[in-house]
Amino acid sequence: MGRATMRWLQPALLLVVAARLATVAVVVVRGEPQVPCYFVFGDSLVDNGNNNDIASLARANYPPYGIDFAGGPTGRFSNGLTTVDAISRLLGFDDYIPAYAGASGDQLLTGVNFASAAAGIRDETGQQLGQRISFGGQLQNYQAAVQQLVSILGDEDSAANHLSQCIFTVGMGSNDYLNNYFMPAVYPTSQQYTPAQYADVLIGQYSQQLRTLYSYGARKVALMSVGQVGCSPNELAQHSADGATCVPEINGAIDIFNRALIALVDQFNALPGAHFTYINVYGIFEDILRDPGSHGLTVTNRGCCGVGRNNGQVTCLPFQTPCANRNEYLFWDAFHPTEAANVLVGRRAYSAAQPSDVHPVDLRSLAQL
Fold first, then answer.
1. Which residues lie in coiled coils (predicted)?
2. Would you please indicate which residues are annotated as catalytic (active-site) residues?
3. Is the pLDDT of residue 356 over 80?
4. Tens digit of each residue's pLDDT (9 = 90 or more) over 138-185
5. SS (H, E, C) 289-333
């Protein structure tokens, strides 16, 4: 083949290569999210900055929090992603769901995060840590957001139709145990109620609050179970003789609450148009603790960043140097999981690895309903 022919072929070849590259580019472009919007309610496990500008000890907008997050310290109580960050990516959102405190009106259309560190189902929960936005307060913020959506979309029917397609995740209850029931020096609840009675009281209040969420348009709602608080470095440091065995008194009380939460999901699914589901974070953590190595983890009883026994007596301090192998730790600080653990939980919430992970459906299925 002559040089003239080669010169003629080169542009043609370039066109073919360009066309192939364009095809590849189309393949990797992210599609539309599986749902138009995602709203988040919860506590420090998923707070991403709502506590930054309030008078609270429950804040994480300082290094080394966010050491592995592109935006640095944002208020997330982790080295990197939270569970809902992982879930938002799996649902197909290009950006993480923003904190309500700094969100614009337009961002309400795709969802915001109302979570607040130290928040509980009960209004008094976490009060020793200063200001926080209880679940009741988060619902008030959501109701204000719905009114804004009505204005943006033009009428209530349009807003209701829009919200009916959104996914809502609600993770409350951890602080009602950690920063209430099992803190008898500050709160009287453990003297007033047995664990079973306390679970009943919590579920009764939670049910009323979730009914408000439903009445303001939420239809696809995932309730996150309370996790294994009795396995956190803080509780191990205080109450575990060997520093490794989880505290049965705490986990036993939480198990009662979680079982009642499953029954609550079944009750809500009797309501018109309701698609509630239960995400078994407790069970997923139990599975990880049973065989951490198979999940890529080597340290499950110490915080990557913290002070004292189990790195859990005092939580991660400003500018403290954390562990280097963060992807091998289950816990980032005295209470909160690492990004590695959060991603594991987020994946199983989105796509159940075992039937016990969810009841009745995972988030991927919920998005399609």
1. none
2. 44, 333, 336
3. yes
4. 999 999 999 999 999 999 999 999 999 999 999 999 999 999 999 999
5. HHCHHHHCCCEEEEECCEECHHHCCEECCCCCCCCCCHHHEEECC
